[in-house]
Design a protein that fits this description.
By secondary structure, the chain is an all-alpha fold. The chain is 80% helix and 0% strand. This is MFS transporter.
Length: 233
């Protein structure tokens, strides 16, 4: 089963997608609450646009996947994740929500709406009925392990560059600067997920080329081929 390219891409995509997402939530929450002093309610409202987009698109995404296929939708979603996390690197000590934070949340919501269901479909597509449960369990394992491992790596990176904030002696700017390496890491994980799934597009194009080349319509008759050679000569 793990020899299947789409299956491998789905599992690795789940690791990078959820690991980056959980880590981003952690960093954004720390930034909004610990550094800017926002309340829990204000922080939840800051994330609300992403959740609203996912909820509103839940009944529409199946049609998008049917039209474009899982690979294209996943690639698009990961590209939006990279943009979302990259835009969040603009944060400072006096951010404007609409200009700085909201764009990341909107892109994050669209990306989650595209990637998560597509990964599930790609992982279970073409799998025998008696193996559906195993594949679903494997995907959920990839999600949970990815979330735990990448979050641990991200927090370690932030802690290593916190500039003494553990002792309470770091300035707000130093604390903010300690978040940036974590955000860069999260962005790189999203980029890794994008590159992994881009290989699926290349494989699909190669497969389509082979199918077209082998089809009777694509193969010229001996007579037509001879005629073209004669004309060329």
């Amino acid at each position: 089963m793990l020899r299947s390219g789409p299956q491998i891409r789905a599992q690795l995509g789940a690791v990078t997608f959820f690991g980056g997402y959980v880590s981003f939530q952690f960093i954004a929450t720390q930034y909004l609450q610990s550094l800017l002093g926002w309340s829990a309610l204000e922080t939840a409202l800051a994330f609300l646009p992403a959740g609203v987009i996912v909820a509103l698109s839940a009944t529409k995404i199946a049609g998008v996947i049917d039209r474009f296929g899982t690979t294209r939708v996943i690639v698009t979603g990961f590209a939006l994740l990279v943009a979302s996390y990259g835009l969040f690197l603009r944060i400072d000590l006096t951010p404007t929500y609409v200009a700085v934070i909201l764009p990341s949340m909107v892109l994050l919501g669209i990306a989650c709406a595209l990637v998560f269901p597509s990964l599930n479909i790609q992982a279970t597509n073409g799998v025998d009925d008696h193996e559906q449960g195993m594949v679903s369990g494997l995907l959920n394992t990839s999600i949970q392990v990815g979330g735990a491992v990448i979050l641990a790596i991200t927090t370690a990176v932030i802690t290593a560059s916190d500039g003494g904030s553990a002792e309470g002696s770091a300035s707000p700017q130093a604390v903010l600067d300690s978040y940036r390496p974590g955000l860069v890491l999260v962005t790189l994980f999203a980029l890794a997920g994008l590159l992994i799934n881009l290989t699926g597009l290349r494989a699909r194009r190669k497969q389509q080329t082979v199918v077209v080349a082998k089809s009777p319509a694509a193969a010229p008759s001996r007579e037509n081929a001879d005629e073209r050679v004669a004309v060329g000569d």
